[in-house]
Amino acid sequence: MKRIWFIFLIINLISTKEGFSQRTENAIYFSNRDIRVILEIENDLLFNTDSYYTAGIALSLTNRKLKKTPTQLLLNLITKKDIDITGFGIQQRIYTPYSIEQPNIVANDRPYSAYFLLTNYSVYINSNKKTVISNEIGIGFMGPMAGGEEVQSFVHHILGNTIPIGWENQLNNAFLIDYQLRMEKSIFRGTMSEHIIPFTELRVGTLTDRVKLGVKLRVGNKNKSMHKLSKGKFINDKFIWEWILSTNLQGVFYDATLEGGVLNKNESIALPKQDVIEKQFQVRMGVNFYIDRFSFRYMVKYNSKDFSNAVIHRYGSVNFGYSF
Predict the structure, then answer these.
(1) DSSP string over 168-186
(2) Which of 51, 124, 128, 171 is most buried, by CB atoms within 10 Å?
(3) What is the pLDDT of residue 246?
């Protein structure tokens, strides 16, 4: 177990100036290769803060030859097979109060919490119908077992930063199962259909329950490349790029990182249900680059308050991919 956390510590050390992103949204690759490794990182140190959602990391493996994975079978129930991309991954996310220098519980503040998930995800693409559907299943745990204290304390020690002193007040261990379903579908015709894309997302389970509606604006040469890919033609372009601006409104019905696990929601350090804000919004802006086997994404995210005494939170994310 210590070796697993050590791997996360090293990657988080690398990530202190970088970030994390939605894996399924960047699952496509244009190289004539079957396997792709994706490293995604999020961290709020980009803006010289260390509060709320303070760090996240995911490592995943996508393989064109994988068949009959759980998420792939679920997508096949609602789609006709066009392009099916599937893979497996691991992820960890860490949350802290606004200040990490308080040893005692701070009333009406976000509690310390962390979670760890093993995931399976799949993406269905139909370029002719301007439709992308993705889903993801995650199974794991929240609490001390997730190693949030060890990761953050080690990284801060290496960097000479303030060591967090309130992790003994973190939320208790809880079993997590998480399911996400996302659909992008253009409702416009002609050029507009390539650049303005509404989307909706549903997330349910013992981690969080929420529904999201939004719109994504994009500019670049990726659209033409995806059309070729949907026809079974691999892309010969040496450089593919895309600029993205996305905004969404979401209804939040439950959040274990604020309220505690389903079976231990009454623990004293958890926020009461009435303090969790049910209507939240997020704005994201960034770029994607694909060069032969390599891909890179940089994204900045702005989140509204998720509980009554919070402030607007911002952080950066980065995504690296390599096909072989």
Answers:
(1) GGPPPPEEEEEEEEEEEE-
(2) 171
(3) 93
